[in-house]
Design a protein that fits this description.
Strand content: 15-25%
Oligomer: single chain
Number of domains: 6
Largest sheet: 7 strands, mixed
RNA sequence: GCCCGGAUGGCGGAAUUGGUAGACGCGCGGGACUUAAAAUCCCGUGUUCAGUAAUGAACGUGCCGGUUCGAUGCCGGCUCCGGGUACCA
């Protein structure tokens, strides 16, 4: 019987589905295990061979855990809101819901062929009103809560109101916007809309004026993580800074918890580091500098309070409110021009221009509170409005940017830390002894910082302060294809919908472009009003809204009363294993953690962190092939002969190249222009192509479609080969050439179950000791390797085992049963077929992982490598329990040792029992 | 610039704790079976040198240096590649 993968794979997939074997329910008798993939955004292009890598890995782990007796939750769904479907809608007028539906269908088709063990009954789609009802609901909760810094928790806005009634806001320590203090009497005397305005400054979901990344081409704002190098991540369009009224989420309130929480997670160091950098905690002091002859003060943040004695000037960001106040009449024109120019520049221009040092003097002076000296106040764009206080004290001797500025404008440079040579450059290191610094002189930098902060606090100049780089998340998008805000506006007031009014569904419109006046597309929905009268919020939520809590929804996807029921959440708790790409390191993975912590504060879920362990699969790169056309001709020269000609390198479709040999006939048919192409071949009569590893993309003709691989080799081969390519977390190129190897292995494995006449035939004989050793080595290795996500070596172990058993012509039922079970996480179809042919009942996934028996692996003898000066020269087989002295004796009496020792004395001999022998001569 | 990874045969990669470097697979070379091909099976395959040969020797994990009886792995200094991030005070 042949290994007919096509037939058997389809048969079993249908059978699995018919029997719902991947559906799971809460089961208190079994330990739970939750394995999650980052759900895909279904694009029009479909899957290429790089996409399923992580899905295959998580599927293997899920199946393995299930074999080990766990109740495994392994769901899949679709992130269906988003920009590409909307842009397609703008171009063609096709409703994005239709585009999304088509793409999802295609994705599901492709995914289903790979044989994943998803519980599709739990599928979620972010664009489904029954799903986004809960996205809107969570938003409302954020609207109704504030963050108490004292308890480090979100609390109901009602607690805040009753506190205002009693004491005003004087004793409240909240994560909030800048707001003046007021007493209870003032609060109680306010009109309702005044109160609303005040409260808006405290809400976790709040609406405020802020500087945003505005992308004119896309007609929408973007979050910081959606902007890369000053252009939009999607599309690469210019992004400018603009002030706008926007909904925002107070992620910054959670900065501390987001940071400390990282220590409890089993994530890669690089990923944690990325999050730490993004959160950007820096410790220092905030302090005031008095203005000379004025009543005003400048508040600055510094991480180097120890260097205040070297602060010889101050710099304001062009955006700073102080600029106008502090600019002297005679400097007004110059400063205004400078500020105007700075404001009109895009992020990108500012970055490109970073080496150009610019700035203008305001005419005002501040007083250095420690030296008493007057120091000039400048405006320069190297100080950012959005970080710290938008103003700095500049210490040119110990900050490279201040140094460059001082050199440019001839400002005094006073060294206050011993170390560098400030003639040439600033000395930025935080080590050395203080000088020129009065009471700090002689102290180390570390101690000087502590002493200085103490002094600043005693003299009431300022206080210790921790600053974060993290910004609140801008939550409005001026687009159509997203979740509507459950908010309407009435008489200037912002009113949330009630829970029973959810979901607020997206209305139909006839044109998906922004309006002529630049308002969001929802403006076109004329009849879309609350109670027929009041305007809804017209912007929609960003992409990360729907993906921030989908892992909770999978626990209880059909619940229409709650986001997730208490029972379901208490059972499934959190994600034990999350697999996905690193591109979400600072976007989705920060927002999700924030979202989760918020829901945790409300007591709705039991875990503070959503993703216990996270594994980032590496990118699968493309492997492109090239042909070389001789210039001004239609003649192509083979790779190794091309140096004799002037040639153009041309990408050629990898699907018509095999082992870098071009299929010339297929090439001629590929493009009409190549129909009459001529070729200069090598001695072997073949055309050899060049190759390069680059990103997989259509334009490089190196895209490989998993459907084609499955058609030719089957899903099991695809699954094994994707894992065999290399370590999961590493980037590696896809090269279809190697796939024959795993395909051969599966055929070999198949043949183990058949006799010479090709009939299925297993023997019920007792396995020999040798056979037991082979299979138990495999059982041990597979368990260990899967646990540490070393899937490429697992595949190697299967091959070794199959080779060994084939050599022994072993057809023992006992042995092969274990083999097919341990293979089943990687190759579920073939395993299922052989499981059933072997006469077993049920499905292989419920068979239970075989128990490893160490007794079969015990050896009577050990092979000792004998090394001379650390280089192994021969090996010696000795009984396992040979004593150290005995080993030494045997080694020394060996002929080969004697030969090596001729004329030389032994300096030392090292014997490590059970390991090796090393002789130093 | 800063932070985090990485570099091993012609290629993808293995070596789990400092103990036989190159598992497994691809490719390549040779052979068996076959009228032939495919499939399958067997042998060889890091480099260099010596030898008719069996075999033997030297070198070898990006580079330079160190620790150690012993280093792909640890330490110091570089080079190159990938990723992240940036006038963040």
């Amino acid at each position: 019987m042949e290994y007919n993968f096509k037939e058997l794979e389809q048969k079993h997939r249908e059978n699995w589905q018919k029997n719902n074997i991947y559906e799971v329910k809460e089961d208190k008798n079994k330990p739970k295990f939750y394995v999650l993939d980052m759900f895909p955004y279904p694009s029009g292009a479909g899957l290429h061979v790089g996409h399923p890598l992580g899905y295959i890995a998580s599927d293997i782990y899920s199946r393995y855990k299930r074999l080990k007796g766990y109740n495994v939750l392994h769901p899949m769904g679709f992130d269906a809101f988003g920009l590409p479907a909307e842009q397609y809608a703008v171009q063609t007028g096709q409703h994005p819901a239709i585009t999304a539906e088509i793409n999802i269908k295609r994705y599901k088709e492709q995914l289903s062929k790979i044989g994943f063990s998803y519980d599709w009954s739990r599928e979620v789609r972010t664009s489904d009103p029954n799903y986004y009802k809960w996205t809107q609901w969570t938003f409302l909760q954020m609207f109704h809560h504030w963050f108490n810094n004292k308890t480090q928790k979100a609390e109901s806005i009602e607690t805040l109101i009753s506190e205002f009634k009693k004491n005003g806001n004087t004793q409240v320590n909240a994560a909030c916007n800048d707001i003046p203090l007021f007493e209870a009497a003032v609060w109680n005397g306010m009109e309702d809309d005044e109160k609303d305005t005040i409260l808006m400054n405290y809400r976790i979901a709040y609406r405020a004026n802020t500087k945003v990344n505005w992308c004119p081409e896309l007609g929408t704002v973007l979050a910081n993580d959606e902007v890369k190098d000053g252009v939009s991540e999607r599309g690469g369009y210019t992004v400018i800074q603009k002030d706008m009224m926007q909904w925002q989420l107070r992620v910054t309130a959670y900065a501390k918890r987001l940071l400390t929480g990282l220590d409890t997670l089993d994530w890669s160091d690089s990923l944690k580091e990325m999050q730490r950098n993004w959160i950007g905690r820096s410790e220092g002091a905030e302090m005031f500098f008095e203005i000379k002859d004025e009543d005003d003060k400048i508040l600055v943040f510094t991480t180097r309070p120890d260097t205040i004695f070297g602060a010889t000037f101050m710099v304001l960001a062009p955006e700073s409110e102080l600029v106008d106040k502090l600019t002297k009449v005679e400097n007004t024109e110059e400063v205004d021009n400078y500020v105007k120019r700075a404001k009109n520049r895009t992020e990108r221009e500012r970055m490109a221009d970073a080496e150009n040092i610019t700035g203008v003097f305001t005419g005002s002076y501040a007083v250095n509170p420690f030296t008493g000296k007057d120091i000039p106040i400048w405006v320069a764009d190297y100080v950012l409005g959005g970080y710290g206080t938008g103003a700095i004290m500049a210490v040119p001797a110990h900050d490279s940017r201040d140094y460059a500025f001082a050199k440019q404008f001839n400002i005094e440079i006073i060294p206050v830390v011993e170390g560098g040579n400030i003639e040439k450059e600033s000395y930025d290191a935080k080590t050395g002894k203080m000088i020129n610094s009065d009471f700090l002189n002689g102290l180390d930098v570390k101690d000087a910082v502590i002493n200085m902060i103490k002094e600043i606090e005693t003299r009431h100049l300022g206080k210790r302060k921790v600053n974060y780089r993290l910004r609140d998340a801008i939550f409005s998008r001026q687009r159509y294809w997203g979740e509507p805000f459950p908010i309407y506006y009435k008489d200037g007031k912002t009113i949330p919908l009630k829970e029973n009014e959810l979901p607020l569904t997206l209305p139909e419109i006839n044109d998906y472009k922004p309006t002529e006046t630049g308002e969001p597309p929802l403006k076109r929905a004329k009849e879309w009003l609350y109670d027929g009268k009041y305007k809804y919020e017209l912007s929609t939520m960003p992409g990360f809204a729907g993906s921030s809590a989908y892992y909770l929804r999978y626990m209880d996807p059909q619940n229409d009363k709650e986001l997730v029921s208490k029972e379901a959440n208490e059972y499934w708790q959190d994600v034990d294993l999350y697999i996905g790409g690193t591109e979400h390191a600072v976007g989705h993975l920060i927002y999700s953690r924030f979202w989760n912590k918020f829901l945790f504060d409300l007591g709705l879920i039991v875990k503070d962190e959503p993703f216990k362990k996270l594994v980032n699969q590496g990118m699968i790169q493309g492997r492109s092939n090239f042909v070389y056309r001789i210039k001004n001709s239609n003649k192509f020269v083979s790779y190794n002969l091309k140096q004799d000609f002037e040639v153009t390198e041309i990408h050629v479709d990898v699907n018509i190249v095999h082992n870098d040999i071009l299929d010339i006939e297929a090439f001629k048919k590929w493009r009409s222009e190549y129909e009459d192409a001529e070729f200069i071949l090598e001695d072997d009569g073949k055309y050899h192509c060049g190759y390069a590893v680059e990103k997989m993309s259509k334009s490089k003709y190196n895209v490989v479609n998993p459907d084609d691989i499955i058609e030719e080799y089957g899903a099991d081969t695809l699954r094994l080969y994707e894992m065999f390519l290399g370590p999961l977390e590493q980037s590696k190129p896809w090269d279809t050439n190697g796939i024959e190897g795993v395909y051969r292995f599966l055929n070999k494995f198949w043949r183990l179950f058949f006799n010479n006449d090709g009939n299925f035939n297993l023997s019920d004989e007792e396995p020999t000791k040798e056979e037991q050793k082979i299979i138990h080595t495999l059982i041990k290795k597979v368990g260990e390797d899967i646990e540490r996500f070393s899937f490429n070596t697992t595949v190697a172990a299967y091959m070794v085992c199959a080779n060994d058993l084939a050599k022994l012509k072993c057809r023992k039922r006992d042995v092969l049963k274990n083999f097919l079970i341990v293979l089943s996480p990687f190759a579920p179809h073939i395993s299922e077929e052989l499981w059933q042919l072997s006469g077993n009942s049920g499905f292989v996934i419920d068979s239970g992982f075989p128990k490893f028996n160490a007794a079969y692996l015990i050896e009577d003898t050990l092979k000792y490598p004998v090394a001379f000066n650390g280089k192994t020269r021969f090996t010696l087989e000795l009984p396992k329990d040979t004593e150290k002295a005995e080993i030494e004796k045997i080694v020394l009496s060996d002929e080969r040792t004697k030969k090596r020792l001729e004329g030389k004395g032994i300096k030392k001999i090292i014997v490590v029992p059970g390991r090796m022998v090393n002789i130093v001569i």
